[in-house]
Amino acid sequence: MTKNLKRCRDLIKIELEDLIIDIERLLEINQEKKSNNDITPYVFKENRVTLKDEINAIKTFLRTINNLNIENFESSEEIFDYLENKFSRIVDEAGYGQGVLFFVKRKLKKIKKYLCITD
Q: What does the CA dihedral 34, 35, 41, 46 come to, rounded to 10 degrees?
């Protein structure tokens, strides 16, 4: 069972790292739009702050996952429940935008589907 829980944890980490790469690409697109004068400097700065905030939130989530002792869980479902609640608390306590939680929950749902875990 521990092997399955490690696999679950590793898949979550991979998906969140992938999400960071996606957001970093959005930062590049934002810069391109500014360079092409497609957006104003104000919009550029607001987008940049929001995207960097989302990256910081995901990095915080990744630290939570890295510190996760899977021995404390009996099933993947317990891990998902714990992480969803923990991530919600992190967003609220740190003042991160709620949008990042939406994207993270989508990634978790994707992994659940892959692992055949239903809500």
A: 40
The tens digit of pLDDT for each residue in 1-37 reads 688 899 999 999 999 999 999 999 999 999 999 999 9
Residue 22 lies in a domain: yes
| Structural domain span for residue 85 | 2-114
- Global pTM exceeds 0.85: yes
119 falls within a domain: no
Q: How many domains does the chain have?
A: 1
Nearest C-alpha neighbor of 48 from the set 37, 59, 40: 40
CA atoms within 13 Å, Cβ hemisphere of 53: 16
